[in-house]
Amino acid sequence: MIRLAGLAILLCCSTVLAGAATQSVDLPGYCESFLMMVEQDGVTSDLAMTGLTKAQIDWIRKNQDKPEVRGICPYPFDPKNKRVPATLVQDPAPPELGARPLYVVRWKQEKIVSSGILYRMDMSGDGKLLPMGPVHDTNRTILTDSSVSLLKYVLKQIKEQ
Predict the structure, then answer these.
(1) What would the CATH number be for the domain defined by 2-159?
(2) What is the distance between the alpha carbons of residues 45 and 63, in angstroms, rounded to a whole number?
(3) Distance from the CA of 25 to the CA of which of 16, 68, 78, 139 falls in 20 to 30 A?
(4) Where are the alpha helices (DSSP H) in 1-132?
(5) pTM given for the model
(6) Contact 121, 89 (CB under 8 A)
(7) Domain boundaries of the chain, sorted by first residue
(8) How far apart are CA 147 and CA 26, in angstroms?
(9) CA separation for the pair 125, 147 (Å, rounded)
(10) What is the 3-state secondary structure (H, E, C) of 83-101?
(11) Beta bridge partners of 108
(12) What is the CA radius of gyration of the chain?
């Protein structure tokens, strides 16, 4: 009975959090494209989580004026950078983005390596995720967070589009 009550609370809170993440927020005008990071691995207890890791947020804040970061904004846009259970993206494409592209990375971290797949959402209305290819961290050392190296690789791929 306790497990059932706990599950009900988890489902209720997940719905509320997912709803909060998709509420209408004024999107910055400087955003040329958007990036949704969805992590699902042992770190997240195999629950798909949308949002940036603390290390990724810190790196973006430090490098936000560099050309490889400028113009790409996290989605859903949350000034508090909270990670929430993923509802992924809805069909059709989110209307608040207009014609600006949305990139989605489904990724995982295993030991010291991060890898995943980069998708681009078809913004023509049906909201299909079109795979662009695999992405991986390019770490040459264990001294830096592999999720940050993965993010750098993803940003480079997006800028090359």
Answers:
(1) 3.40.50
(2) 30
(3) 68
(4) 2-21, 54-63
(5) 0.76
(6) yes
(7) 2-159
(8) 28
(9) 31
(10) CEECCCCCCCCCHHHCCCC
(11) 115
(12) 16
